[in-house]
Each structure stands twice: as C-alpha cells, then as structure tokens.
Design brief:
With 161 residues, the chain is mainly alpha-helical. It has one domain. The protein contains 4 helices and 2 strands. It has helices at 8-25, 74-86, 100-120, 129-160; strands at residues 34-38, 58-62. A two-stranded antiparallel ribbon has the order 1-2. The mean pLDDT is 88.
C-alpha cells in the first residue's frame, strides 16, 4: 500500500468503523469477513478512495457466511477475539515492534474505540466492551508471538545439535 501511495490510514479507519458496526450495531463476531477494494457503483454516494493506480474505488465487506451472533459479555468478547485472529490477512496487528505496522495498529485501535463509543452511546452498560476486546486482541497477539519465538528458538537448538 505504501509503494502504491495509498492512504493506508484511511483504509484502516474504514475497517475499524466496519468492525465496530458489526460488533456493537449488529452484535455479530465478524468471523471470516473479507475487505475488498472495488470500483464504486455509478450511483454511489459512498466515500471513495482515490488512487493513481487503482482509480476511484470503495471498500466492501464480503463473506458473511461464517458470522455468528455474539453476546455482550466476556464470552462474546472471546468469540470476537477468536474471529479477529482468524481474519489474519485483513486486520492490522499489534506487533509490539514499534514499526509502521505497530503505528497502523494504533490508528485502527483508536478509531475502533471512537466509533464503538458512538455506536454504544453514553451510559451504555456495554461501554467497557470495546476497550476490553482490544486488550484481549493485544494479549492474544503477544501470546502468539511469544509462542512463535519459542518454537523458532527450539528449532534453532535442534538444528545445532
């Protein structure tokens, strides 16, 4: 995206908005959804993304066949976290490296929390759920990175023997 000069922050924010709407508006886990870029319909009033290479385009969310209802509690958050982690190629990740990818995660996270607060509204008893979900995703990502590192170290040790 950087090489093509695309506004990756705008894409990230659009994805965060969509995820917040699915979780708190539709109350679904967003399992296995896909974000795709496509030309806008001729009559579309949707916000589009300009690109020298891709032309004017919009982002669509597809593949709702695996989406399931989620409860507004800890079990629902676990379900949403698992769905987020399964959608690996699509969402920014909290990689903990301080790189541009990490910065993208923070754009995503911040927008998700802002949009979630708008959807849930003031005084909502579920207002703590979006922040808790982001924490769960960060914890799970950290756990997976640690496990991957341990496996790599074990493989290196095995190769040296």
């Amino acid at each position: 995206m950087e090489d093509l000069g695309l506004n990756y922050v705008a894409y990230t924010q659009t994805m965060a908005d969509a995820l917040a709407m699915m979780h708190w508006g539709a109350k679904v886990d967003a399992n296995d959804v896909e974000f795709v870029l496509a030309p806008p319909r001729a009559s579309s009033t949707r916000t589009s993304f300009p690109s020298h290479y891709l032309g004017k385009h919009v982002m669509w969310v597809l593949d709702f066949d695996c989406v399931r209802h989620m409860s507004m509690d800890e079990a629902g958050l676990k379900q949403a976290c698992a769905a987020f982690m399964r959608n690996d190629p699509f969402y920014p990740r909290p990689d903990g490296t301080g790189t541009a990818d990490e910065a993208l995660w923070w754009f995503f996270r911040q927008r998700f929390l802002e949009t979630s607060a708008e959807i849930l509204g003031d005084g909502c008893p579920h207002a703590v759920l979006p922040r808790r979900l982001m924490e769960m995703i960060e914890e799970e990502d950290c756990r997976r990175r640690k496990k991957k590192q341990e496996l790599q170290e074990r493989d290196e040790d095995t190769e040296q023997d």
